[in-house]
Amino acid sequence: MLGMSNPTREQLMVRVAELEEELSEREADLRRFRSELTDANARLEAVLGRLESELKVAQVMQKVLVPTEFPHISGFEFSTKFVPSSISGGDYFDIFEHEDRFRFGMIVSSATGHTMSALLLSVLLHMTGQLESKKGSEPHEAVRDFLDQLKNNIQRQDTADIFYSLIDRRSFEMRYVKMGSVLVLHQNASTGEVRALGGETSPLGLDFSPPKQSESLYLNPRDRVLICTRGVMDVTNKQGEKYGLERVTRSFLSGPARGVHEMRNHILYEVSRFAVSPELERDQTVLVIEVKDKVIKLAKS
């Protein structure tokens, strides 16, 4: 073409040398990148290995801490099931006797946040629950003490759903507080009506404001109470729908009337049938309670 000259052999050789040098630099960069990536992968695998090990330790500790036997409490029958998740743990529950032999307490908690802090939160709730029950504190007072003892040890993102109650076997009054997403259903044996207990507040956490009073429910013979953690409520199907309050209520109503163990198994079976995957996203805890009678045998004077 006019105005342009063809490159000379020397110019071509210089350009080839420049390209070879650039290629060499790129190959060196690539080798460094591969080396750094290999190191990063090794570090990541080490971190994941430690996290997996810590998670397994936490799961083992949690399984050990969740009680398998409860005290025999005249007038009440209990059936419980704890189903651990390999993804997100944190559930804890306990039924414990009071210093006053005519009272007993129940606590069901579902903690979120880092694995160990969630586990620590559940353990501390268990310990303080027993201590406060012996002092005779109202549930809302015990919750205030929970927060006072835990707020220096939990992170901003850590929260816990809690149902904490004390039951007096003389009057069959259940005094309780409910925080977060623990579901509590009461079935009136006379009418068959099922209703969700109210009085719910936000989950316990750093910004939590303790309730100013405890709620109250009077139980009658053959009444039933169902307590479920969020892991039951949040199970999803193929359409992305959650199991939710309505379905839990239907399962409760359609469950067998012959015993609390059958009722518990029925609810968990219905939940498992609904789930899109057998892999649980969160721990599941189900507790079924039935009032057997109101006969209090007093000691002879």
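Above is the first protein from milestone M3; the second protein from the same milestone is given next.
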Amino acid sequence: MNDTRQSELAGTYTPPIVKGDPVEISTNVYVIPDHRVSLVPNIGIVVGDSASLVIDTGVGRRNGAYVLDQAKRLTGSRPLYLAVTQLDPGHGFGAQSFAGEATIIYSTSQRTRLRENAPSYAEPFIGLGTEVAAEFEGLELVDSTLTYSGSLEIDLGGTRAVLRDWGVSHTADDQTITIDSRVLFGGDLFQTRMFPIIPYVPPFDTHFDGDRWIDALDELVALDIPVVVPGHGEVTDTDQIRGVRDYLDYVRTASRRLRSEGVSLEEAGTRIEEYSMTQWPTWGAPRWVRSLVKAFYTGA
């Protein structure tokens, strides 16, 4: 593995296994919490009168099968849909377990990522250790059975799910899902009590538009949805989205200002990291601060 990609993902990793029972966070909307385990997302299961929707799968066949079993336990014989908030290993690489069991929905951005470069995203994760690599055994990347552009509304029977493709923002194919304007699944556009994950590793991964990311968060804040499910961390509310938005804006402004003043990328990273850890002292995963600085300083 390239050393640059490895260093961006540096950290301590326990086995990325989805565990636990679904917790009801709103009427007929459930989350299997990530329990703050790296590489495990919050998983959503939405039960309608006539169909159900699963949101994200975890990585690999085993996690996907576990999520499918939990969904069937809640939904019985109702038809299933599967959507992923982004087509990367942690969020969408368990979709193979749903093939033939659910209508798999990708946005056009996600389908493009699948066909052009999704396999390359597995390599840096596999290199994180044997316990992580084990979840990639027997990995098969599956195509969608339904693809949409822009947005898609699904009637689950008494429950409405709206999928929206944001295109390039935090990464190449961010997607959000809102349920009846009462629950928002935001994927990695934001997290709770964590510095935002930013998979910007040039020249390999350069799908990043920081201005668009901030604009997306502004739009999500304006929706004022009462229950908010981040890609990682505890279920929260709109204030957390606003907090992440303000952090991104700070890093954007500081990175571009320091670059214009001739400050090196390394020094800019040091200054912004020190300030960020003081200003947001309860947030974890500070390794992502310098990644975001690099993205704004060099990429946008």
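Note on the second protein: Residues 171 and 207 are 5 Å apart (CA to CA).
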